[in-house]
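User: Fold this, then the next.

Assistant: Folding the first:
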Amino acid sequence: MATATAPEREFRVYARGELREEILLSFRTHLRQLTNPDTGLAFTESEIATATATLSQPWIRADALDLTLLAKQNSELFFADQVRVDRAGTNWLESYHARMWGKTRLEAVGGSGPVSQPAVTGTIFVGSTTIPDTIAYAMTAPDGKTYQCLFTTPAVAGVAALTLQGVDTGTDTNPATGTALTPAANIPPGANGNATVTTTFTGGIDRETDAEFAGRIADDIRHKPACGNSSHFRSWCRESSAAIEDAFIYPCALHAGSVVACITQKRGVATGPLARFPSVATLAVAIAYLTPPASPVLPARPYVVVVGPQLPGVFPSSDIVLELSMATGQASGWTDFTPWPESNGGTPVTITNIAGLPNNFQITIPAGTPGLPAGVTNPTLMVWDDATSRFETLVTTSTTFIGGVIYQVNLAAPPTVGLIAIGHYVSPDAGRRVVIAETIESYFDSLGPGEVVATADSRYHRAVRFPSTNEEWPTRVGDSVLTYLLDALGAALADGALTGVTVSTPTVPTDPISGPNMCTLGNAGIYPL
């Protein structure tokens, strides 16, 4: 996520004792030009050192001046910080910068997502996009949080597929898949029992932080929003909801006077590659805020389309292979002293047969890579879960050679349901697997959507994405992921290489109105370098 980042100071800041030493240096230089009245000769270096030694009268005076000036400097530094939006504290940010630029901090919003509600066929569940609304069907979660039906929906074949949004707000309004919700208000007669969350809710976000608020203001300072320019549309999108991470503007992508605005959603506490794709509720709020004639900020004439990036089902995810040089047999590196299996030129180790589940499955190692090391029968392995973008250690009993490049992995305990699937990447286990996974996820979170019009198209020169990829939110998957890993792992990672990427740059969609493509994380495998 893009936030305001303060650069190093443009002026010198003195540390404790620096000014004292400068004062004493000046005093010593002056003494060298004088004559000792007792000897009639110039002061010797030994006499000068004695006269300015620690706790001498000159030293005490210089130290007192140093303390006084340091206190004054700290006072001035505080005010120097407050006049910069990227350093200001909460009070100055809200009462000075926000007032100057006409901004207000965005409040928390509730998460939203789909639920399955058993009901008699034809039963109508009343919804409303006004949160809260006393006429809408409402439900409560086990933790007491309240959710409201967004759209009026009938039950079909005994089930109503409802979309709910939290009336309560914050990151704890994102119930997980399988959570049971209890009907609470405006219950139609045909409703049968509790509803079940079918996909983990997203978009539940706490009140805008100082860093996020400062980032929005700093972006408006950098690119002045005015007269409906691209910066203005970006600013409007971001101020429509605290759940919106950023907005990407494509002016005139459809025709003259049209605007395509693509929004991404803040990840919050959610994991997985879909967390940044706007939920139905987040998208609905942005559409209502930006689309005339009901828009509170736009007049009736502009033609505005608000979309999210194309989902991975439309544009494929990026599967990556990394080779990392880490210590072996240590919690800070590879778990085993001889980590196995290995990659070959970016080819990962994949699950190729799951007929033996839940007790075993088969993997295929790349041709040309070593087989099981001598004496090793049970290497420690982990598998990548592409739904949550995390590694999970496999509890195995043995790994046996089947033939060719195929090995059977025997499990002592089954992993998470659905984790063992054909095509999933298997890697040697690493002690810092969680940090590595989170870092790879963070790298992909730094990427933005691509263009909606091809460079050869006559519209490209006016429909190019704002903000530019040269300034913010690059689109290409590349070696920068290693920089993220080096920063996160420190000395634990000696070297690394990105050896395989299935999709490195987003393609142009067939129709701009469907939204841009964006590289999202699919499978990830890590192997010894």
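Now the next one, as you asked:
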Amino acid sequence: MFNAAEIIQRRKDLWVENQNIQLDKEYVNCIAEFLCDATNPNSELLRKEIKLNPELLIEMVFVIVEKGDNSQEDARTVPFFLNKVQKSFVDDLNIAIEQYKAGLRNFLKFIILKGRQQGFTSFITAYQLARCITSQNFSGYTLADNSGNSQDIFNKKAKFPYDSLPELLKPTEKYNTKNDLFFSGLNSSWKIGTAEAKETGRSKTINFFHGSESAFWISISSILAGLGEAITKSSIQILETTGNGYNEFKTIWDEAVKGENNWEPKFYEWWLTPEYRLNFETHEIEEKFKEQVENEVNDFFKTLNSLRIYQGLDWNQLYWYENKRKDKKELLPQEYPCTPQEAFVSTGRKYFDASKIKNMLIIASSKKKLESKDFAHLDHPYSKLFDPPLRDGMTIYDYPRVGKHYIFGADVSEGLDNDASHCKLFDYETMREVAHIHGQFSPDLFGELIVKYAKLYNNAFGAVERNNHGHLTLATIYKYLGYKNIYKEMVLDKTKEKETLKLGWLTTENSKYLMLDELDTAIRDELIEIYDEECLNELFSVVTDKDGKVKINGKDRTAASAIAYQMRKFYKIKKINFDVF
């Protein structure tokens, strides 16, 4: 008996050996005959295996037109074998389906942000087709951003592989039109439409929905609202797209990342697509390119070197990316992103150096987060005080080290709704992020957490923003818990006509631009290392509007980082004393 994996592997071996589509067709016909043999119990087992995992049928019998350089000889028909990103997504999808069946999740909703031509539309279309011809009562629906793309999806990615199937595998058709397929024996259908009309999708019953290039739709919310009543509870819903600026899709994506909606975010870097690589024309060109990368002759080559060192990309991948930059120029990040935030090209001028943030994100994505439970095992005077409840919202990149000096900055929220408080701790000498606290804490609890970790990090010196609710946090730190190693500002009390000390950092229009400008300089000159990916994404989104103004309301990670960097100017190194408390 052969299972699906063995049949697929045999097809792959035959293709590698012969590269002959006619021979492949003969093998596929043999598979079809075996699958349709009603007298063979092994055939029945294989059919059951395919019904559970329709992607198996794709690799067993489907074909696709190979991507080429638009020349006649490259546009050839080949077996449809899943690439790395397609396989990664379907593996995640299958896990999610099992979790749904087990009652461990309530939705099968995925939002995909990706680079161009990574094969998602081809795969999702083929997956729907495979389910449509193997399942009872299947109802699939695909929406593309415009009518031209919808017809391209249906004709090239659905009808072509369907028409190429052996006749034995084609169910009885009720109709087969330019927009849909309906199989009467299975009561199974698949239809395509366009998102150009806001009312599209109403009055349908759908158990699989695919939104293609959804960042380019007229109105995602209106379309999803119309589809809401039609989509069944157990339906699979997928929105996939390349980025398209700061628009409605980005809002949905950001909410998904924060867990504020029911979409599960999936991002796929350009380098996960294996064919994105380019050979060097000559040995001389190769050597010159490698020298430029290793010497980081400009910011882009520094990015290439970071990708090589921290993500393990090889020289042919880097050379491909460099050549894409020459073609795409400023659109390169949107169409072939290295990070999710990079995929969204904003309309305002970015406040912080985008190329430096990108490099920091590449490094941060490879940075290992440490286990907080291991604090208790440190050879450290305060390790015995550590009790790691999950509510601390603590992320650790480096444990406190005896003899080291640390500083922090904190931005305080009300602890309500989606507003969060954030405290960022840095190694004073290197300005490398060592840890951060993030969560929706009440101001007094946030103060308790700051003291707890400031002590652990050798009585770290730092500042809490005193605007609004920061006053209660500061009172908790200084008055109720007696932690004195915090920033105090000398201010003029106009009523008493004398200078007094005020606890904490006051953010005004002047001090805001001071701390943001100096943080920008530190980022540009590589004087600070931030490993918090959400913070880096937030920094990426800070823009200067048409009036020259910068808003950081709600950007708690940005504010905390900027305040922490200011503390370098006010911290006076002294002997670390563990007996003051």
